[in-house]
């Protein structure tokens, strides 16, 4: 990533850049109809005053742009004439915007740049750029009163003076201005220059500048297809780089076919025949892809549906309760306990006699038999109510 080094040049070599025009357009606003500004001066276009500005007069957008170019060029010339020290492009743009708004360079700001005495009586040396930066927020009065709009503009010009983005750091929701009863800026309740510069240094959300693309024709914006590279003619240009030659495998020497013996056999040199290589192992075929499982029927998609189906099957084969051993066991138990209750009440209300004891004993036996039948029925039962 290239690093841009800001170099100061004489003001006579500098002209307002797009950054200065964007700042002026933002804070001046556009009005194609003449109006009165906050202090009662007729204004039209991008803050144009003078004879051309008449309340109620209407102009076109092209006329407003032409008036802006004239005003910016005229006020930039004031900066070139009155500043004698070198400036960066950002410093020149900030001073051009300040002069566009005020019509002059304030005395203290000029003393910090060119050297001289400020309105507070402090002697400044030429090139005091840091002290000049501190003078921007002081020039935010209109009619003797500080205005929030002018205060925001001075802070934005201070950011531009330091070559920092000002759009977010100087937004209307961030900058605050509080004025006391004496008409002075309350530094405790107002946004300071230091805080604004810190926000501007931390601001990394500024979108890239695409204004040069928007000014092109639509046919130029559309990306053109890459043209095929021309192939150089044979002999006119150097041939393309050749690929590295592949090493040739050594030739196989086959044994000569022996001729029929027609004379004395002469022993020749031994010929080495390479041994035959075993065939490569067969490649196992890939297993066939696993077929997906068949879809589950709608009636079996949930456990609740399956349980209901089984309950219906059981209900179709279930026996009646009248034939259940558990039913008869419970019936005997109930009968025995009722009998015991009856005999117990008789024992309480009447005298104890032998028939009463026999009746209690028989009721107890019926209860025991009923408990045994019930227990036997529970052991033999494998399904409910069976």
Any key phrases for this structure?
386 residues, mainly alpha, two-stranded antiparallel sheet, two-stranded antiparallel ribbon, 12 helices
Describe the protein in words.
There is one protein chain. By secondary structure, the protein is mainly α. 41% of the residues lie in helices and 5% in strands. Strands 1-2 form a two-stranded antiparallel ribbon. Strands 3-4 form a two-stranded antiparallel sheet. A two-stranded antiparallel sheet has the order 5-6. β3 and β4 (123-124) form a beta hairpin. α2 packs across α3 (89-102), α3 packs antiparallel against α6 (148-161) and α11 (325-349) runs antiparallel to α12. The longest helix has 27 residues, at 354-380. The chain is elongated and about 140 Å long. The two termini are 89 Å apart.
DSSP summary: helix tally: 12
Q: Give the averaged pLDDT, no decimals.
A: 77
Enumerate the spans where pLDDT stays under 50 for 5 or more consecutive residues: 234-242
Our measurement of the CA-to-CA distance between the termini, rounded to an integer number of angstroms, reads: 89 Å
Strand content: under 5%
Cα Rg: 54 Å
Spatial sequence of strands, sheet with the most strands: 1-2
State the total count of DSSP E strands: 6
H/E element sequence: HEEHHHEEHEEHHHHHHH
